[in-house]
Each structure stands twice: as C-alpha cells, then as structure tokens.
What we know:
Elements: H1 4-9, E1 11-17, E2 20-25, H2 40-43, E3 51-57, E4 67-72, E5 78-82
Antiparallel strand pairs: 1-2, 3-4, 4-5
Amino acid sequence: MQDWGVEKARYELRDAGRGAFVYMPKADAGNGEPPHWLCPNCFGQRRKSFMQFKGQDKRPGGGNGDTSNYACDGCRSSMKVTYTVKPTNMPPKSES
C-alpha cells in the first residue's frame, strides 16, 4: 500500500448512528471511488477493510426499528445502523 499517512489523510471518522463509527472518504478525497465505509478497528491498525452489508433485521410490523447489519471481513467486527443509513446517503460532514 502507498504511504499510510497519505492514505489516512483521505478519510475521516464519521458517526453512522446507533453507537457505530466508521471511516469514510472526505468529500474532496473520493478519487472517483464509490462511497464506502472502512472498519475503524482495522483502520487503526493501518489496514483498509470495508464494512460489508450483511442483511437487514425487520421489526415485526415494520417501522423505524428496522436495522441494517454491516461487518468487517478482516477482523469480524460488526455494527447495526438504522436501515436508511448507508455510505451512499450519508451527508457531508459539517465543518464546525
């Protein structure tokens, strides 16, 4: 992999909700890649490992309780997020 410092600078830690955090490319650093999430555990170990969609849990009767499951195939960490949250629809991080 190229210099880790350069690669690391392209990403920022984001709150995906429900207590889950991911690394995402910064708005100006996508390099033409599709939106994606990286595992924060692997990222901390200088590895890029994608959080992969693993299916949905449906609440009986539907509603706002439905969740999507994501997992890292590198370290086996997993997370649940609200079913409407995905890498493709997370808004840009607001500058404070």
